[in-house]
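Shipment paperwork, digital attachment
Item: protein structure file
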Amino acid sequence: MGSIKAIAAIVGVAAILMGGLWILQGLDIVRWPSSSFMLGDTTWTRNGVVLAVVGVVLIWFSRRP
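Attachment content:
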């Protein structure tokens, strides 16, 4: 069970980081890469929030005793 929790924590951190990038690109704050179709599209802001929440849940799951 310990290895599953470790994998869940790693995936959770990756999901939070990717969700944060999507949020910032959707809000047109981060303009990288400059030719991205995600820039200024609020759909990606919503998707980023959902992904970040999933990441938080995965980390919460991995920290439970």
